[in-house]
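Fill in residues.
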C-alpha cells in the first residue's frame, strides 16, 4: 500500500521575475547533502522556456506548476521566490494536502505590489543591456556572486521584451485571491533577505504573513532580494528544517499505516506511546494504555479485507487521515482517524470514526468477542444516557 503519506517529500523550487530554474543550483546542492530530493522548474517565457507562448499571468503559471506536479509522486514542499511565491501559493491552495508546507522567500504579496505607473515602468521596460541587468541585480542585493550575476544577466537578455512587460504587470497587479485569507491552510515559512530594499519587513508583516493560519518568519543574513543566490547555505538549511519538521509531523501517520499493513500487535506497539488513549465510534468508552490498544488494533486491522488511506491533513501535532475499507465479506465502510503525537513523535491519542452505522455495529458485535480477556464486555455495551 503506497500513499502520499508514506512517500518521501520532495522540495519543488519556483523562481521569480526574469530568472530561471538554474538559479537554485547551490540551494539544491545543499539539500542534496542532506539527502533531500528537489526539483527546480523554469516558468513559461523565461529560462529555457522563452519560446513558450503566453499568456504570461499568475494563473497560467500556477496552472503550469500544478500540471507539472501531477508527475511528481508523493507530497511536496513548495518553495517560491519573489513572484514565484505568488505562483507557489496559488498552486498550493489548489493542491491541498499534497503540499505539506510552503516556503516563501522575499515574497511579493499575492495581491500584488500595486506600484503606480511611473514606478512599475522600469520593471516593465528595463535596461536590456548586459551592464543594465547587472546594475539592476546589484541594486537589490548584498553579495551577488559575480559568476551568477553574469549568467543571470545573460539569461534575462533572452527574454522577449513583451514577456518582461507582461511578467512585471502580473506580479504588480497580483491576484484576486490575495485580497483575503490564503486558500492554503498548511504551515508556511517566510524567509527574507535581511538587507532586501524591495520586499521590506513591513510588507511581509502587513501584507503577507497575516493571510496565513500558520506562518513563521526568519531572516537570512548577508542577503538582499536573492538570498538563495547570496547565501544559499542558509536558505538550504531553513528549507531542510521545514522538511525535518514536516517529516516529524508525518511520522505517526507513517507508523500507523505501516501497522495496518503488518496487522500485528508489534506493528502497532512501535507506533504507540505508553499511556496512549483510544476513542472510537465502535467503543462505549475510551481504552487506555499501550498493551490494550495494540491488541485491539491488531484484532480490528485483521478484519479488513482492503484498506486505503485516501487523504491526509496535518495541523500541528494532529494528523487527520481519511480512509475507505471493506470487511466482513465485502461490507464497504469509510472513516476518519485522528492521531495526536507526543514530543517523541509517538501516538498519544487516537480517535476513530466509522461510517455507516452498520460498520460500527459489526465491529462491536464481531470483533468485540475476540477481545475477551483484553476488554471487558462493557466496552461494547451502550447504556442509555451515558
Amino acid at each position: 500500500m503506497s500513499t502520499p503519506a508514506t512517500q518521501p517529500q520532495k522540495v519543488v523550487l519556483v523562481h521569480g521575475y526574469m530568472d530561471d530554474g538554474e538559479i537554485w543550483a547551490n540551494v539544491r546542492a545543499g539539500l542534496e547533502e542532506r539527502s533531500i530530493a528537489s526539483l527546480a522548474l523554469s516558468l513559461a517565457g523565461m529560462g529555457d522556456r522563452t519560446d513558450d507562448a503566453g499568456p504570461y499571468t499568475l494563473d497560467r503559471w500556477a496552472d503550469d506548476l500544478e500540471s507539472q506536479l501531477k508527475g511528481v509522486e508523493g507530497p511536496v514542499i513548495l518553495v517560491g521566490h519573489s513572484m514565484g511565491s505568488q505562483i507557489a501559493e496559488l498552486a498550493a491552495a489548489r493542491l491541498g494536502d499534497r503540499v505539506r508546507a510552503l516556503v516563501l522567500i522575499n515574497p511579493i504579496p499575492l495581491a500584488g505590489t500595486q506600484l503606480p505607473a511611473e514606478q512599475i515602468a522600469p520593471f516593465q521596460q528595463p535596461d536590456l543591456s548586459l551592464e543594465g541587468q547587472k546594475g539592476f541585480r546589484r541594486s537589490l542585493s548584498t553579495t551577488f556572486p559575480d559568476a551568477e550575476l553574469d549568467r543571470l544577466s545573460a539569461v534575462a537578455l533572452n527574454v522577449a521584451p513583451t514577456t518582461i512587460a507582461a511578467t512585471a504587470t502580473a506580479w504588480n497587479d497580483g491576484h484576486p485571491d490575495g485580497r483575503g485569507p490564503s486558500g492554503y491552510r498548511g504551515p508556511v515559512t517566510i524567509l527574507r533577505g535581511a538587507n532586501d530594499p524591495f520586499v521590506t519587513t513591513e510588507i511581509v508583516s502587513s501584507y503577507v504573513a497575516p493571510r496565513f493560519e500558520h506562518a513563521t518568519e526568519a531572516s537570512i543574513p548577508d542577503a538582499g532580494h536573492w538570498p538563495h543566490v547570496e547565501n544559499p547555505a542558509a536558505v538550504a538549511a531553513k528549507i531542510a528544517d521545514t522538511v525535518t519538521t514536516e517529516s516529524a509531523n508525518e511520522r505517526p501517520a507513517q507508523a500507523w499505516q505501516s501497522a495496518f499493513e503488518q496487522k500485528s500487535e508489534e506493528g502497532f506497539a512501535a507506533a504507540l506511546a505508553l499511556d496512549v488513549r483510544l476513542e472510537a465510534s465502535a467503543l462505549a468508552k475510551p481504552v487506555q494504555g499501550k498493551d490494550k490498544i495494540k491488541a485491539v488494533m491488531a484484532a480490528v486491522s485483521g478484519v479488513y479485507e482492503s484498506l486505503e488511506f485516501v487523504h491526509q491533513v496535518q495541523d500541528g501535532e494532529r494528523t487527520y487521515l481519511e480512509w475507505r475499507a471493506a470487511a466482513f465479506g465485502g461490507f464497504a465502510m469509510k472513516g476518519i482517524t485522528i492521531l495526536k503525537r507526543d514530543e517523541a513523535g509517538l501516538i498519544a491519542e487516537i480517535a476513530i470514526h466509522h461510517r455507516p452505522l452498520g460498520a460500527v455495529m459489526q465491529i462491536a458485535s464481531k470483533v468485540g468477542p475476540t477481545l475477551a480477556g483484553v476488554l471487558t464486555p462493557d466496552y461494547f455495551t451502550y447504556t442509555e444516557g451515558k
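The longest strand covers residues 304-315.
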